[in-house]
Amino acid sequence: MQPPESFTRFIAENQLFSQQSRVLLALSGGKDSVLLAHLLKAGGYTFGTAHCNFQLRGSESDGDEQFCRQLAEKLQVPFNVSCFDTLNYAKTHQISIQMAARNLRYSWFEQVRQQQGYDVIAVAHHQNDAIETILLNLVRGTGIAGLHGILPVNGRVVRPMLGFTREQIDELVSRHQLAYREDSSNASVKYARNKLRHQVIPQLKELNPDLEHTFQRNLQHFKDLETLLQYQLAQVQPLVWGRVNGVAALSVQAIGQLPVPRLLLPELLRPYGFNRTTVEDLLSALTRHPGRRFISLTHQLTLDRDWILLEPLRADIDQVIIEAGTACVNYNGRRLNILHQTQSEILRHKNVAVIDAALLQYPLILRPWQQGDWFYPLGMQGRKKLSDFFISQKIPLSLKRRIPILVNGNGEVIWIGGYRADNRYKVTAQTQKVTIFELDKQHYE
Questions:
Q1: What angle do CA 253, 254, 258 make, to 5 degrees?
Q2: How far apart are CA 262 and CA 350, in angstroms?
Q3: Gyration radius of the chain's alpha carbons
Q4: CA 335, CA 123: separation in Å to the nearest integer?
């Protein structure tokens, strides 16, 4: 058989691979992947095959494996196979069987690709699959990115069949009398995708017989719209992002000035694991619920008066013991350098405390703020509760426990790390040696 000109043109226009590339074909035995195998062979491409036996349909699954093995032998190309305990994997990871199969196959495909030196992994999704994906995304809820459906290239995965419709594939398979395996589960409408395929899309095609080509045009519009959105995001990033006490933060005022915050803010926060529903809750709470927190799998958002603070989730260290002679300790993502020297020019920086060494009683402790803590702020009269000092410095509640408090061996606060030292430990004319405590500039990002 001779590959249709549209097949080779689609590969070239989308830069999927070249004649010199080594292609790993995901071969299920179904009509689509079987046709792709014959097209690759007829086109003179160098390829091997990989088949997954998910052991979900008993002897039918074993029959698929045997068919794919024989096809690879007929085409004289390498054949790889892996058997998976899909049901157990789904149960262990508490996901659907379909999601389990997807995770297992793509992980294994990539493993084979790397081990055997293939350049890309080719899968046989076609235009109708792309339509189904868009409709599924719309039903479940999606952003702009979900509207472009299945892309021709996604990392190392390529889809050479996206130029074909279901009907075109059927016609080619029939014309060349290609044998293939029919997956009995494809006829079941208990899966959402099959329900769309068998019940919804036929109704849509009655309204528009040219449905596939209409969707292809729409896909290009959606891609262009996504490109425009990314351009707009790049413009607003520097306007909305800032820092509060070393922590990344979004300006509430700047968010309010965005033309469409419900569109842009989810995209700004998507890299940190926040979904659209959470972001909508966040927008509803702005200016009304200071202190409220929103959690993703990796990050935490905290509403402050004028800012939305973004911090990674991490297990905080309760305290660090500092023995005499220690040169450096780490505390919740920051490093505290400790220098011992004779008195020199006093450094004036909020991240540096110069202390009279003779007043230190080891071991020192670096710990979070505690209720009841107080100190004598350097340059001020009288003592002050740390809680009152934090208020005067407009430090958000969520950041208080992130600030390192340096405590002397006698229990007295020496320094609020990054803010103010205690007046009792200042350097005087009588000071002979100083200890310099310096917090690095790496904050909690």
A1: 120
A2: 38
A3: 31
A4: 48
Other beta carbons within 10 Å of 101:
18
Long-range CB contacts for residues 224-228, cutoff 8 Å, separation at least 24: 225/144, 225/147, 226/144, 226/145, 226/147, 226/148
The amino acid sitting at 336 is L
Each of the 445 residues of the chain gets a pLDDT tens digit; together they read 788 899 999 999 999 999 999 999 999 999 999 999 999 999 999 999 999 999 888 899 999 999 999 999 999 999 999 999 999 988 888 888 888 899 999 999 999 999 999 999 999 999 888 888 888 877 776 666 666 668 899 899 999 999 899 899 999 999 999 999 987 676 666 667 788 888 888 898 889 988 888 888 887 788 888 888 889 889 999 999 998 877 899 999 999 898 888 888 988 998 888 888 888 888 888 877 777 888 887 888 988 888 999 988 765 557 889 998 888 888 877 788 898 877 655 566 778 899 999 999 999 999 988 888 999 999 888 899 998 998 888 887 767 777 899 999 999 999 999 899 999 999 998 888 999 999 875 433 3
Rounded to a whole number of angstroms, the distance between the first and last alpha carbons of the chain is 57
Contact 422, 435 (CB under 8 A): no
List the structure tokens of 364: 């020192």
E-assigned strands of 56-167? 79-83, 120-122, 153-154, 157-158
117: Cβ–Cβ under 8 A, 6 or more apart, which residues?
A: 22
Residue type, 427: V
Q: Tell me the HSE value of 411 on the side-chain side, using a 13 A CA sphere.
A: 4
- Rounded CA-CA distance 33/182 in Å is 12
Contact 328, 337 (CB under 8 A): yes
Report the predicted TM-score, pTM, of the whole model to 2 decimal places. 0.58
Give the whole-angstrom CA distance, residue 129 versus residue 143.
Answer: 19
Helices (H) then strands (E): counts for the chain: 15, 22
How would you classify residue 169: left for phi > 0, otherwise alpha for psi between -120 and 50, otherwise beta? alpha
Contact 302, 274 (CB under 8 A): no
| Number of other residues whose CB lies within 10 A of the CB of residue 316 | 11
Cα–Cα distance, 152 to 272 (Å, whole number)? 26
CA distance 380 to 366: 23
At residue 411, the 3 state secondary structure works out as: coil
User: Which token pair is 44?
Assistant: 């003179």
Q: What torsion, rounded to 10 degrees, do the Cα atoms 389, 393, 399, 402 define?
A: -60
